[in-house]
Every structure is written in C-alpha cells, then in structure tokens.
Design goal:
ABC_transporter-like_CS; 10 strands; single chain; globular; 4-stranded antiparallel beta sheet; ATP hydrolysis activity; ATP-binding; ABC_transporter-like_ATP-bd; binds adenosine-5'-triphosphate; P-loop_NTPase; Rossmann fold; 268 residues
Amino acid sequence: MTNAVDCVDLSYQFATHLAVDHVNLAIAPGEMYGLLGPNGAGKTTTIRMLTTLLKPFTGTVRVFGIDATAHPMRVRRAIGYVPQALSADANLTGVENVELFARLFDVPRRFRRQRVSEALDAMGLTEAAGRLAGTYSGGMIRRLELAQSLISAPRLLVLDEPTVGLDPIARGVVWEYIARLRSEHQMTVLMTTHYMDEADSYCDRISLMHRGKIRVTGTPATLRGGLGEDATLDDVFRHYTGDTLDKTAEEGGIRDVRRARRTARRLG
Ligand SMILES: Nc1ncnc2c1ncn2[C@@H]1O[C@H](COP(=O)(O)OP(=O)(O)OP(=O)(O)O)[C@@H](O)[C@H]1O
C-alpha cells in the first residue's frame, strides 16, 4: 500500500544553519502520527516542506505517492493544513471564515453551503456559527481552523501545535474532535507538539526530533517500554537526546518566545 507520507533524506538549511538534517519519515494511511520535540527542533520546517511551502535542500517528499516538488498543487489538494499562527479572521463570523476557505478551494457553489455547515457541525460550532470569531474562546478558534481545513475534504490533515496556548480542558476537547475526525473520515493525521502527554494518549506512532534530526520512532508504548515499566516519554526523550525537553525548550530564541506570546495573547 502507498504510504500517506514518505520523506526520504529531507534537509533544509537557513543560511548556515541546518534546521532539518536528513530526515526520513514514513506514515501509513490512517495513522495518527506525532512529530515531537522542543522549540527549534525543526518540526515546523519539516512540515513546511511536506506541505510544499518550502523546497527541500536535499531529499524528497511524497504524499500518497505524489512527488511534492514535481506536483505541488496535486499535493496541496490532498492536504488540510492548520499552521501554528492563527488563520481565522476575528472580524468575520464562524460561517464566513469557513465560507472563505470554501471559495479559496473552489468548492462548487451548489455544494458550498452544505459543506460549510457540515464542517462547522463536525467541530461542534453550529450554534456559534453566526458570531464573530473574535468572540470565540481559544479552543473554539482552534476548532474553527479545523473546520476550515476540512473544507477541501483532505486525505491528510497536518496540524502544527494544534493545542498550544490552550488550557488543559480546551486541549482535551480539541484532541477529542481531532480523534473523532480521524476515525469518521479515515483521515491520516500528522501533528507536531511538544506536549509529551498528549502524544502519548493520542498518537499511534511518534518520532522524537532534536536539533534537526529524528532520534527515534515508534509507538509511545514501545518507546516507553524499552526503558522500563514506569518510564514516561520525557524519559525516552532524555534517553535518546541526552537532553531534557524543558531545558531545550528554554533555549528557544527570541523568535520562539515572541511567537508563543503572540499565540497565547491571540487565543485569549
Ligand atoms: N525563517 C527562518 N530564518 C532563520 N532561521 C530559522 C527560520 N525559521 C526557523 N529557523 C531556525 O530553524 C530551526 C528550526 O526551526 P523550526 O521552526 O522548524 O522548529 P520547531 O521544532 O518547529 O520549533 P517551534 O515549535 O518553535 O516552531 C530553529 O533553530 C530556528 O531558529
């Protein structure tokens, strides 16, 4: 069976800094896959290559067998992407935000209303659909962005830090919606996160990324089990990187701090 995602020997360099260092990733159709690592590990840069927003320095990306460099538009059509920066417009209502995406993705006019209302319904936003997105809670905004990404009926959903800046209850709700989407639509989901506990609960398989490299890949249970009965994914991260997630997260530069604050502020 063709993999949903195949990245082979993928690298990206900013000036002299090798942000992604010869990464290999193989994701099976229907998998919920987590790319984990601290700020600056190279997760977003990997995702940007995979979603055709950056051209790889070395290596290849295939999405459902389609080469992303040769056929970027075909790959984009297969992908729903929710970036880390917020994409919903606070001055539009929920329904207007999703309609905008329906027009961007050329959903034929006669299906548009139904597709928009189905996407809002799938994310539990039917009642709030007529309100300005600026009045939504952080969790509702994330769900609105998920509704936007569903408009193109993607086979692969790519989520960059879907729960960053949310409180634990809102995070749990967002995860439940993602899990439901995946099982109801047999979608493949690739997400980045630095919350190890979430990856442990929701991902079928994870790759731990550190300083541009994938250090280890496996199911959360296998990775933990390899270290002993009471091991956590934090222990696994420490074992394979010689580092702690907290410490490396603290090393994130001004760009990371600024972005995290901006995201937290906008999510309210
Ligand atoms: N536009 C850019 N110019 C220069 N360096 C960059 C740029 N974008 C990212 N980097 C650097 O590349 C490395 C990887 O960044 P990337 O954003 O991919 O990490 P990440 O794991 O997604 O972290 P975060 O969760 O903070 O987004 C970091 O060292 C970062 O500072």
